[in-house]
Model the fold of this input.
Amino acid sequence: MSLEGSTPAPSAEKRNTHVDRGLTGKALDCGSSRCRFKSGRSTWHQLRREVFTKVLNRPTLILNRNWQPVNVSTVARALVLLWNESARVVDPADYQTYTWEDWAKLRPPDGERFIQAVRFRLRVPEVITLTGYDRLPAAAVTFSRRNIFKRDHYTCQYCGAQPGAEELTLDHVVPRAQGGQSRWDNCVLACLTCNKQKADRTPEQAKMRLKRKPVQPTWNPRYAAHDQRIESWSKFLSEAYWNVALEK
Done:
């Protein structure tokens, strides 16, 4: 079954606002009194494909059959799992589960995203549960520059400044010159001024106090890698996920 919308291309003589109800349920503004879709049908369908692809690439939370979060996939992948009966959609509003057949019968509420199939509108699933997987994959936060920036909220751990990523650097609390290692509990963000002031000294030696003790973060990297926050996920994820700052 095709998921492509079936709305015909509008004429260039139409007014400047067109409604692509089959993809977003919202109006698309052409930006002038006469439509700017000068290339006609091909440009209109190209725009529809771009919006359609964006919807299919939105994240969907995957739970195992015990309703424990195990991964994040795209909407497109979630629909494949649903079609193959490997998963069911979970409605976060009432926790009811749906097969493909049941889900396809539901009418999208006003303002909710949907996909226009040939004969019906399909709601975009935000959470699905697998029918045959009950394990929890091992997860550990990678020790990397990106994750240190994330953990420290893009903030200098000495003066509290937030000058921007380009003005921040990694500082070894116990300098490598004194045997300090590159690990979670010995690396923090420092602005260039504090980093220069501290030099190859410990905070005590430099009379500089850390804002907080560096530790290994506890958020789940499977979800923290996605910068799109889906409100309904909060019912299934731990508070550790929501309390960590997202990348800017």
User: Anything to note?
Assistant: The chain is about 25% helix and 15% strand.
